[in-house]
Every structure is written in structure tokens, then in C-alpha cells.
Amino acid sequence: MIRTFSQDSCDIRDYRERLSVMMQLQALFMLVWPRTYAKFEREWHKASSITAKGYATPRFVQVSAEWVPIDLVLEKNSDENEDYLEILRVDASRLEQTRYVQEVQIKKHGRSLASTLVRVEEFRNLAKSVARDGIRRPVLLADVAAFELPYRMYRFDGHHRAICAKHLGLERVPAFVFTVTPPESPTLQKSGVTVADSEPTTALTDTR
């Protein structure tokens, strides 16, 4: 089942406000689905803020479906937010000159202009879809408050959806927030023993 989320349809009071029981069950499915962790692990190893610290990939512990403030969702890679937002604001005739095209996609990610413009069109169409129907898939976040990182939430899926929400003035977005195991201590890292080895955890979800 695909549910649509629009800020207008819900009374959003605070960050810890949970989504429906149905969405808690869907979040639980994402917790145990192997592809979710595979994506998290792949994105974790690509983040320069993490590789600089040498953090091993933590494991998922539990998950909750919640409304999360948009600024918290976009805190990771916040220096690029304006480049992404520009794509949704400028006239189509100026797209090729934007930093998103020239700096983010072509220079940083090594994409061709042709493939980049296809991505741009998909991005702009996504914004129209969010404006019309709301966010159809919750953003995926890992709570990394225990790590020494410049953000609280590690976003590993849903960047473009979150940017669209920001562009449209939404203050909060639906998200599946994963609690993860704490960072390994230097002693454990040197000995080759992980936190998961020394302190086994059980994957649980809070569906209250």
C-alpha cells in the first residue's frame, strides 16, 4: 500500500509525533528487508564526513515512523541545498548554467550534460508531483546523535523528495527513523572486535 503525506492533512505538533500504526508496520518491514541495510551501508561508505572519522558501519537496532523537521532532514550536505533548490526555481532556459548541473552533477558526480538534463527533468517533475499529491514515500534516516558528525540525522534515501518539500514550504516530512548501534571505541577497533560482537543487539521496533 502506498500512502500519501501532505502537511495540510495532519496536525503536526512536534518532532516526536509518530505516523499511523500502518506506517509503523511498513517501517518494521523496511527494518528487516535486506535491501534497506544494503543501501544504508553503501551510502555510509560514500560519505566523506564519515570516512574522515573512520567509523565502521553501524547496525540497525529499531525503527520508528515519524514526522521530522525538514531542516533536520536536510542538515546532511546542507552546503548543497541551495544548488538543488535553484533547479526548482529557475526558468528552464537557465538550467544548464546552474551549479546543480555544472558543479554537482557534471563535476562532482562525473555525469554527462545529456544525462544530467534528464535527471533535472525528473527532479522538476517530482516537485510537481509532491505539490499535487504530497510525499508518497517516507524519507529514510538513521539517528547518528552518538557519532561525532556535523548532523543529527544521516539521510540515506529521499534527498530529492526532501528538497521538494523544502521548496514547497513544508516544515516537516514523513520519515522512517532507524536507531543504530553506537560507534566503536578505538580499543575495540584496534582489536578487531565490533560493538555488535561484544554487545549483541536485537532488532526491535516500537509500534506505540
What does this structure look like?
With 208 residues, this protein is an alpha+beta fold. The chain has a domain at 7-77 and 135-198. The chain is built from ten helices and four strands; from the N terminus they run αααβααααββαβαα. It has helices spanning 21-32, 34-46, 48-51, 70-73, 81-89, 99-108, 113-133, 159-167, 186-191, 195-198, and strands spanning 60-69, 139-143, 153-157, 172-180. A four-stranded mixed beta sheet has the order 1-4-2-3, with helices on both faces. α5 (81-89) packs across α8. The radius of gyration is 18 Å and the shape is globular. The model is unreliable at 1-14 and 186-208 (pLDDT under 50).
List the helices and strands and how they pair.
Layout: H1 21-32, H2 34-46, H3 48-51, E1 60-69, H4 70-73, H5 81-89, H6 99-108, H7 113-133, E2 139-143, E3 153-157, H8 159-167, E4 172-180, H9 186-191, H10 195-198
Parallel strand pairs: 2-4
Antiparallel strand pairs: 1-4, 2-3
What key phrases describe this protein's structure?
single chain, about 210 residues, alpha+beta, 4-stranded mixed sheet, disordered C terminus
Strand tally, please?
4
Quick one: overall form?
globular
Number of helices: 10
Low-confidence residue ranges? 1-14, 186-208
Radius of gyration: 18 Å
Compute the average pLDDT.
85
N-to-C series of helices and strands: HHHEHHHHEEHEHH
Question: Order of strands in the sheet with the most strands?
Answer: 1-4-2-3
Strand content: 5-15%
